[in-house]
Amino acid sequence: MAFHPQSEQQHTPVLVTEGGTGVTALAAYKLLAGGTSDNAALQQVATLGSSGQYLKSNGAAALPSWGTINRVTPNVVAVNAATYDLVATDDILDVTYTATGAVTNLRLMTAQMVVGRTIVVKDGGGNSGTNNITITTEGAEKIDGADTLVIKTNYAAMTLTVNAAGTGWLVI
Question: 125: left (phi > 0), else alpha (psi -120 to 50), else beta?
């Protein structure tokens, strides 16, 4: 509540024409935002929002509103076959293939080369010391300059991301 200079009471609203809000009461924790000349110089944001939300702009002609951050849970895929081709929804490959003396071959498909895309390959079965996990690409793309990347330590993991040019994979 603003103090009106021509009044001894703090409960008298200061009119918009006198630089005030014209608001006679504010809800606890409500936010004020610059309004339009049609409505008022200052306006209250419609709601209080809730825990975890953020205040987002709705452009120059509208008051801000509350938005919710959409958290994305990584898609963990169990790889339990001798060969596997990466698909668009894969984020973490949990390699559990355990055939004795077998090698698991993971192929990074050219169509999945999106700048900044990151995947994790994890030896979830703890067998890559004996049964290596070999990662290759579908085309001429390289993995840190090489044609293949081999995981050969039990329970090891490798994180790969597509380079800035979108032409190969980086081990990070």
Answer: alpha
Dump pLDDT digits (tens) for 85-127. 999 999 999 999 877 777 889 999 998 889 999 999 999 999 9
**Average pLDDT over every residue of 156-165:** 96
Both tokens of residue 142? Answer: 């390289």
Residues contacting 158, CB < 8 A, separation 6+: 120, 121, 135, 149, 151, 171
Q: How far from chain centre, in Å, is Cα 162?
A: 17
**The two three-digit tokens of residue 101, written as one number:** 């003396």
Question: Measured between alpha carbons, how far is 110 from 117 in angstroms, rounded to an integer?
Answer: 12
Alpha-carbon Rg for the chain, nearest whole angstrom, is 29
CATH number of 76-171: 2.60.120.640
The segment(s) of the chain belonging to CATH 2.60.120.640 are 76-171
